[in-house]
Amino acid sequence: MREPILLLLLVLLVIVGAQFEPGRLCFCKGDEAVEPCDCSQTRTIDRLNNDRIFEKVQKLLKKDFFRFYKVNMDKTCPFWADERQCGTNQCGIAFCDDEVPAGLRRRNAVNMVRRSSHESNLNHNNRWNDTTTLTVVQEEAKEEVKEETTEKCADAGNNIDPMDRTLKDDEKRQLDAMDHHDDGLEDKFCEIEDDESDGMHYVDLSKNPERYTGYAGKSPQRVWKSIYEENCFKPDPKFDKNFLTNPSNFGMCLEKRVFYRLISGLHSAITISIAAYNYKPPPPSLGQFGSQMGTWFRNTEMFAGRFGTKWSWEGPQRLRNVYFIYLLELRALLKAAPYLQNELFYTGNDQEDAETRKAVEELLEEIRAYPDHFDESEMFTGVESHARALREEFRSHFVNISRIMDCVECDKCRLWGKVQTHGMGTALKILFSDLPHSHYKQDSSRFQLTRNEVVALLQSFGRYSSSIMEVDNFRKDMYPEGQQQTSKSKDSRKNSKKVDL
Known about the structure:
By secondary structure, this protein is mainly α. The chain has helices at about 1-15, 45-60, 65, 115-120, 130-155, 170-180, 220-230, 255-275, 300-305, 315-335, 335-340, 350-370, 385-405, 410-430, 450-480, 480-500, and strands at about 25-30, 35, 70, 200-205, 280, 295. Strands 1-2 form a two-stranded antiparallel sheet. Helix 8 (about 255-275) packs antiparallel against helix 9 (about 300-305) and helix 8 crosses helix 15. Mean pLDDT is about 75; it is low at about 1-15, about 115-135, about 145-165, about 175-185 and about 485-500. Its main location: endoplasmic reticulum.
């Protein structure tokens, strides 16, 4: 009796220890999350991304509108003192304000140029061919220059009778509450500064790819520990009725399980990028002469370890969470499609802008054709007061995580942490902005996205798209026989179709 039990345990360890289940090396949308499936299925997330989405996203992210991201890299960590020291020459970034097209340097008020709904309804097919809108934008930009000049002249009078800017503490609290309501703060999932704030600079993301930087040790450990431990959800009998019988993340309510998958997927996508673009430094004996002789390589061993059960039984599930975020942001893009179709993506370069609009439309067409989207309508349901409280807790937790990104000491790591949390926060804003308890529900015309939000969303989606493509590359390295079997299955399907005809 003892030997069969030991044999069964051994078999289970082999199955659980693998990143991919035998015969089911790809991933598909399940009832609630993502499940492994046969790669020969036509609706795998892998096939959608690798065959239809990936190239279109990469093409789009090379456009001027999407590669320049405005960010404040000098914000201090609000939770602890940090040193901001790079361990290698791979973690630094450079600002590129002078390289940004003039059309993108306009104020945020006209940064996302849109046609009016009246103009769009007149002729849907020719919505990009009207030069009137561009003329209006150019005139608005000129008016802003005039306004800035007028404001500078008016400042001279402040020396004679300066304004009293003091406020009492209770007045400040009251005004903060008013701003919270008026600005729709409850629909903001990230703490992001206005484009015109001091310290905001443009960064060319195409020149700062996410990859290995040498950032390791106590600093990143402290960041992730703070994210997982201090900002995790605690069990609440009001929401988590199954926690007593299943005391784990699976015993939490749907919304809290989704939140955990988002954070886990973010962490996992970063790990995949580091493993896919890992760096082997030159031998120390070469000294400064060998500083440029390091090599970049694909670290399959690292991928296998992180997403197997070598360090944690959750390894395989973490890999699935990357696909989960991909589906969530895919759904956000689908939901925002009518909004994005009315954008001019204006940079001042007519040919570039036309190409960008065409590339966006091509991407949206592929997204519309996919049937297995994330369903946000299942979240924050039930008793109104409970749903509102749970949604606010969800939002505030995510805002806090976006603030923690300012505690990352490596510049390039901090940059991509801010971009990806900003993009994910934008996706959540899009998905949940029309709920009954949303600030925008009463007036849908108020819903808007800044250029930086659109850039962050597409860049974030691009990172998960790249991660899924890299998963396929690792899969080929680890299971070459599985890829051969998949090819045979495809060939047999093709042959069977020919016979049927």
